[in-house]
């Protein structure tokens, strides 16, 4: 049973930089709430102020005005040692202590709890073990950090944050530098952690589609610094998502949940029939060639897709001229030739 | 895991044990060897019972060789631990007391005492000053090194790039040296000679209560370093992570700075600016133990520093001859190749710092 408790709350928060007498406000009037058991993604275009917001929430940067409270205590009132028991961080910066082993880095997560010399109790050992297991890096805990891939490194830093035993975890671009499978794995891991360990997790990312799929809530930061919050699907349907990333030449495709390069007007139209999955991929290939699709009755050209045990075949019927193709590459080359001939 | 960490724990213990045995061996060897040859059994009996039939030997051992060997131990521990702390604090493999101009800062403090005092004042005169004089020179040297260190830290707050920071440190060191040069230019020849003699470095000048003062200050500095080893470990991940793990950066920096200034300042005041120990020993220790855990590194660095400083001192005495080389020359001759080795095997270095 997940308790509906808010771990992090901001009231009329204004963030930005102050150097001397010059105050540059990035965002103000932020009233955000982060609940336990939820994974929240902070999205926004480059330069919207995501990092500034993260740094401010983490206490690494001073607030301009307003307040932040973590588990009911004001951030400004918390001593660093107390804050370390409530909030842990995973930063974008690459850790440059390659001589440390994975286990040693995760052990550092216990720093807020150990004595002045850092002696570990049995409980500390258990927490470290648990953190290693939760992230799935027990197998290489004796390896040195510099021997690890970026994905593994990021997991180590997450395990370190888990060992810190805080209800709130902030991650600044945990998926940067990772390849696609590692990114997916990381997001799912974070989601699972939020659910199972009832932690409040806030992360920034540029992975829009992954965020849409996995986040319980989105904080959308627009170019002017205003933040829209809500369940991902709501933000997509009310247009906030598209507005935040509005840029010429791009449009947000609601049906696929991805951003697509602006369509050009198709000069040729074909109709497709067959397996829905294959139609989807065929359409994609055709769109790139500026070939549109229309219902069967309107097209001069029809493609019938059949899938057999030996593979997929595309049967092209162009005004009665039939040809059979076993790859999209050969289908497209024929269509391209036809199209070019048609234009001339 | 238990087995593995236990195994690495045991290997650390073995290395430290070996180092301790080496340290004792070279400590005795340092006392044994010198321009006057004294039989081994006599040396042992003088060390442990403090009695000998030959009063000349007794005097040589008790008043010259023993204090010098103890000074070598103090210098070896102090300089290398302060180098270790700086390398971690600046996250830079080339940081060290002499490289970042901290030693030059201490030299400025010493110059202030030696060159501004009346014409009768020389380092030997200061040694005659008694306990307050030695405190004066320690305080001035520590303040000088703290001044340079705080300027560098102040700039370090603004600069993230380690290489640039190192260049800044070297520049500040150069400025400090120039200030000393101006001072020297307008000084009396006798004062100048004393000061130049001081820059050669010597382990032999620390006797009687000067030795107690130096021992006390170095012990205190080492204690501070050991107390801050948990903080130093947290700093390995960078300042932001350290802060997120509950470290008060300001206080930690102050603690490490105090320890480094005291160690470098006091040692430089009495023994002159001894180079290369501070930068080279931490690297040797790290590669010897293969760890970055400061709870192990701080004591191990002390031991390695002790061993190498004693070896340097033995070489400096040139056993069998009447000549004594300045200690600074010997440590540099030994240390410079180590620094070159560090730069050439950058992979080795990268594993610790990037």
Query: How many H/I helices of chain B?
Result: 16
Q: Given the C-alpha coordinates, what overall shape of chain A results? A: elongated
In DSSP terms, counting alpha (H) and pi (I) runs of 4 or more, how many helices of chain A?
A: 11
Oligomer: heterodimer
Order of helices and strands of chain B: HHHHHHHHHHHHHHHH
Question: Biggest interface in this structure?
Answer: A-B, 37 and 31 residues
User: What is the CATH topology descriptor of the largest domain in chain A?
Assistant: Rossmann fold
Per DSSP E runs of 2 or more residues, the count of β-strands of chain B stands at 0
Uncertain ranges of chain A = none
Range of helix content of chain A: 25-40%
Distance between the termini of chain A: 68 Å
CATH top level of the largest domain in chain A is: Alpha Beta
CATH architecture of the largest domain in chain A: 3-Layer(aba) Sandwich
How many strands of chain A?
18
Which band does the percent of strand residues of chain B land in?
under 5%
Description:
Chain A is of the alpha/beta class and 344 residues long. Chain A has helices at residues 50-57, 80-83, 102-108, 122-135, 150-163, 180-196, 208-214, 232-237, 240-244, 276-288, 328-343; strands at 6-19, 22-30, 33-35, 39-43, 65-70, 73-74, 87-90, 168-171, 200-204, 217-221, 227-230, 250-253, 258-261, 268-273, 291-293, 301-308, 311-318, 321-325. Chain A has 2 domains: 6-246, Rossmann fold; 268-343, Rossmann fold (3-Layer(aba) Sandwich). In chain A, the strands form 4 sheets. In chain A, strands 7-8-9-4-10-11 form a 6-stranded mixed β-sheet, with helices on both faces. In chain A, strands 1, 2, 3, 5 and 6 form a 5-stranded antiparallel β-sheet that branches. A 5-stranded mixed β-sheet of chain A has the order 15-14-16-17-18, covered by helices on one side. The mean pLDDT of chain A is 85. In chain B, 79% of the residues lie in helices and 0% in strands. The two termini of chain B are 26 Å apart. Chain A binds chain B through residues 58-60, 80-85, 87-89, 91, 93, 95-100, 103-105, 108-109, 111-112, 114, 116-118, 138, 141-142, 144, 146, 164, and chain B through 1, 4-5, 91, 227, 229-230, 233-234, 236-238, 240-241, 243-248, 286, 290-293, 295, 350-354.
């Amino acid at each position: 049973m997940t308790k509906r408790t808010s771990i992090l709350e901001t009231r009329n928060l204004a963030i930005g930089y102050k150097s001397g007498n010059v105050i540059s406000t990035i965002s103000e009037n932020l009233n955000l709430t982060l609940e336990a058991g939820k994974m929240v993604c902070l999205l926004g275009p480059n330069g919207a102020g995501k990092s500034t917001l993260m740094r401010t929430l983490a206490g690494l940067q001073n607030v301009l005005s307003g307040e932040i409270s973590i588990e009911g205590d004001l951030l400004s009132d918390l001593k660093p040692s107390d804050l370390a028991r409530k909030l842990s961080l995973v930063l974008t910066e690459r850790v440059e202590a390659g001589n440390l082993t994975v286990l040693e880095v995760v052990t550092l997560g216990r720093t807020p709890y150990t004595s002045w010399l850092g002696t570990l109790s049995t409980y500390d050992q258990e927490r470290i073990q648990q953190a290693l297991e939760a992230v799935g890096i027990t197998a290489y805990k004796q390896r040195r950090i510099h021997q690890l891939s970026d994905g593994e490194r990021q997991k180590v830093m997450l395990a370190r944050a888990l060992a810190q035993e805080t209800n709130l975890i902030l991650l600044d671009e945990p998926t940067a530098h990772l390849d696609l499978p590692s990114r997916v794995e990381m997001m799912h891991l974070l989601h699972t952690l939020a659910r199972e360990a009832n932690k409040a997790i806030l992360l920034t990312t540029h992975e829009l589609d992954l965020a849409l799929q996995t986040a319980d809530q989105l904080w959308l930061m627009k170019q002017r610094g205003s933040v829209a919050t809500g369940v991902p699907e709501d933000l997509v349907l009310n247009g906030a998502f598209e507005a935040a990333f509005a840029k010429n030449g791009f449009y947000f495709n609601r049906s696929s949940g991805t951003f697509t390069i602006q369509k050009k007007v198709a000069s040729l139209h074909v109709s497709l029939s067959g397996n829905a999955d294959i139609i989807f991929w065929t359409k994609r290939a055709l769109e790139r060639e500026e070939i549109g699709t229309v219902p069967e009755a309107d097209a001069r050209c029809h493609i019938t897709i059949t899938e057999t045990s030996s593979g997929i075949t595309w049967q092209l019927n162009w005004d009665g001229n039939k040809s059979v193709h076993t790859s999209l590459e050969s289908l497209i080359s024929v269509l391209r030739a036809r199209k070019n001939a048609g234009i001339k | 895991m238990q087995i593995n960490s236990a195994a690495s724990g045991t290997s650390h213990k073995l290395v430290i044990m070996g180092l301790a045995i080496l340290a004792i061996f070279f400590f005795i060897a340092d006392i044994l060897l010198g321009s006057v040859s004294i039989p081994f059994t006599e040396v042992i009996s003088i060390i442990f019972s403090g009695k000998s039939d030959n009063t000349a030997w007794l005097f040589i051992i008790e008043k010259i060789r023993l204090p010098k060997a103890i000074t070598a131990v103090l210098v070896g521990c102090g300089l290398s631990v302060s180098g270790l702390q700086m390398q971690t604090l600046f996250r830079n493999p080339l940081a060290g007391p002499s490289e970042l101009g901290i030693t030059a800062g201490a030299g400025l403090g010493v110059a202030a005492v030696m060159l501004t005092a009346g014409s009768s004042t020389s380092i030997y005169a200061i040694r005659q000053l008694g306990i307050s004089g030695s405190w004066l020179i320690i305080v001035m040297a520590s303040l000088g090194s703290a001044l340079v260190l705080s300027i560098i830290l102040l700039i370090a707050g603004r600069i993230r790039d380690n290489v640039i920071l190192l260049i800044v440190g070297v520049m500040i060191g150069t400025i400090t040296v120039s200030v000393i040069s101006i001072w020297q230019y307008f000084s009396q020849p006798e004062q100048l000679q004393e000061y130049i003699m001081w820059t050669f470095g010597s382990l032999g000048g620390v006797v009687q209560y000067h030795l107690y003062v130096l021992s006390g200050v170095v012990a205190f500095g080492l204690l501070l370093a050991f107390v801050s080893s948990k903080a130093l470990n947290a700093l390995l991940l960078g300042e932001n992570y350290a802060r997120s793990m509950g470290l008060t950066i300001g206080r930690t920096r102050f603690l490490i700075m105090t320890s480094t200034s005291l160690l470098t300042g006091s040692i430089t005041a009495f023994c002159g600016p001894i180079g290369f120990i501070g930068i080279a020993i931490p690297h040797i220790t790290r590669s010897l133990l293969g760890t970055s855990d400061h709870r192990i590194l701080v004591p191990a660095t002390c031991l390695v520093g002790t061993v190498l400083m004693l070896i340097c001192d033995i070489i400096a005495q040139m056993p069998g001859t009447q000549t004594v080389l300045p200690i600074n020359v010997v440590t540099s001759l030994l240390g410079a190749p180590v620094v070159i080795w560090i730069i050439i095997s950058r992979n080795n270095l990268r594993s610790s710092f990037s």
